[in-house]
Amino acid sequence: MADFRGPRIAMVGVGKVGAAATYSIIHKQIASEVLIYDINADYLDAQVQDLRDSTSFGISPRVRAATLKECGQCDVIVFTAGTNQKPGESRLALVQRNIGVIRDGFEQMKPFKEDAIIVVVTNPVDVMTYFAVQYSGLPANQVFGSGTVLDTTRLKDTIAQRAEVAPRDVHAYIVGEHGDSQTIAWSNMAIGGIPVDQVMPLNDEERSEIAEFIRFKADRLNKVKGETSWGVGACISNICTSVLLDERHILPISHISEEKGISYNRPALVGRRGIIRSFDLILNETEQASLDKSIAKLQGVVRTTENPGEAAATAPAS
């Protein structure tokens, strides 16, 4: 058997999102080997065979099924495993169930490679990232969530279409929760380094329309095609590339704030050591109020998740 000494990526969970991310990673040629794990052995075997079939053209990494213990020794570990919300199930129950998936998975992967970077994708990603840091035993800068990278990508594309420029020339961030309470940092947005208001002035109504379009884009796509996978898959591979090649991109990822006691999204410099530096944007009064509300929401979810009895005691009688 060949001795694979180059960087290795593990994909834990190979459903639609995990498969799309793996496909993108394979064809970016950033790793010598991609290890894949899924709890469903037959499904795992089928996905590995299908993905391996795509590696016959050009230089591609080795792709194979692996145990969780093997995954824990990879340079980058992408964790997409989790369950969907059941009919009639509370959000808190879903959160607790997926926390269990992360906790059990991490226990089987330990001890992690000392300099491993863990990218959490399982939703709700901000809450999952908070608990992933606790369970991993790794430094907090080595564990972060995919967060609002996809939301921000959608925002850049939307602004680019309106301004008729390339998306890469739009500099913008969505901060706070990856979810309904996300906040667009309009006051920091620029096109080619020029403040957006100088290039394409937007009134409050237009900004609200764009915010709503971005916030509910996944819901619209899900209703038609059942899931979204290609966009987030590309975002995950982009994060992995920034890590493995030490490209040091600034990305709006979900990461721990010791001050706030949660994980939430804000720009961070990402390289081979994981998070090298975190940035708190200077926002206007309206944006800061929106971000504070988003942070408070996440703090409430973490608090009730850590103390479910307290949540039950304070719930109104039916």
TrEMBL record:
Annotated Lactate/malate dehydrogenase C-terminal domain residues: 148-302
Catalysed reactions, semicolon-separated: (S)-lactate + NAD(+) = pyruvate + NADH + H(+)
GO MF terms held by the record: L-lactate dehydrogenase (NAD+) activity
One record GO biological process: lactate metabolic process
Keywords: NAD, Oxidoreductase
Family annotation (PROSITE patterns): L_LDH (PS00064)
Pathway assigned in UniProt: Fermentation; pyruvate fermentation to lactate; (S)-lactate from pyruvate: step 1/1
Pfam families: Ldh_1_C (PF02866), Ldh_1_N (PF00056)
Matching InterPro entries: L-lactate/malate_DH, L-lactate_DH_AS, Lactate/malate_DH_C, Lactate/malate_DH_N, Lactate_DH/Glyco_Ohase_4_C, NAD(P)-bd_dom_sf
Residue positions binding NAD(+): 13-18, 38, 98, 121-123
Domain Lactate/malate dehydrogenase N-terminal: start-end pairs: 8-145
Keyword Transcription: no
Alphabetized Gene3D superfamilies for the sequence: Lactate dehydrogenase/glycoside hydrolase, family 4, C-terminal (3.90.110.10), NAD(P)-binding Rossmann-like Domain (3.40.50.720)
CDD domains xrefs: LDH_like (cd00300)
Active-site residues (renumbered): 178 (proton acceptor)
Statement: the UniProt record of this protein carries the keyword Lipid metabolism: no
Signal peptide: none
Assigned EC number: 1.1.1.27
Assigned protein family: Belongs to the LDH/MDH superfamily. LDH family.
PANTHER family reported for this sequence: L-2-HYDROXYCARBOXYLATE DEHYDROGENASE (NAD(P)(+)), L-LACTATE DEHYDROGENASE
Name listed for the protein in its UniProt record: L-lactate dehydrogenase
